[in-house]
Amino acid sequence: MKRVILLAGHNFKDKGCHVNLEGKTINEFDLTTWIVAEIFKKERLINIDLVAKARNDYKDLVSEINSLNADILISCHFNASNGISQGTEVLYAHTSSKGKRLASVAQDILVKHLELNNRGIKATKQADRGGSILNKTKPVAILLEPFFLDSVKSFDELISLMDKTVDSIIQLLEHLEKNEL
Question: What is the pLDDT of residues 121-169, one digit of tens each?
């Protein structure tokens, strides 16, 4: 049985990007935490040892991830840019052929479900955004950027994108259950 860590991106101190909808600020950490919790509730029929993670800070995160003896790490995030950009991308460690394959599978699933611009998979070096978690951890690691949070215009759109993201990750876990990297 594969052990997969599903990590909510950012933390209580660094909440990541945000969007203002109907006078309310909604941040990346709250949304990634919700996604991880939803998947954890729904994945019970999948034959995977799923570890749900969220952090208060980044101190020793790499060491903590490495101590969990996982096969795969999926770090959940959202993009932000200029309030106009939109699309889906998945990052992986530039030296990991398995990470590249997993990123490609994840990207295909996300693009199919979300029906957004395919921004492709991105090889990431240690000094790049997301580089430490992708390049310093033992498990095959990917970082999901399903959509640009700052481009969301309504709660209905956000809920739809969030639901599609959860469905995508569930489908990715089902793929991992049945296939080798």
Answer: 999 999 998 888 999 999 999 999 999 999 999 999 999 999 999 999 9
pTM, 2 dp: 0.94
List, in order, residues 6 or more apart from 7 with CB less than 8 Å away. Answer: 36, 53, 54, 55, 65, 73, 74, 75, 76, 133
Q: Calculate ∠ Cα 136-141-178, nearest 5°.
A: 145
How far apart are the C-alpha atoms of 174 and 2, rounded to whole Å? 11
Mean pLDDT, residues 170-174 taken together: 96
Q: For the CA atoms of 122, 123, 126, 131, what is the dihedral angle to 10 degrees?
A: 30
Which domains, from first to last, does the chain contain?
A: 3-178 (3.40.630.40)
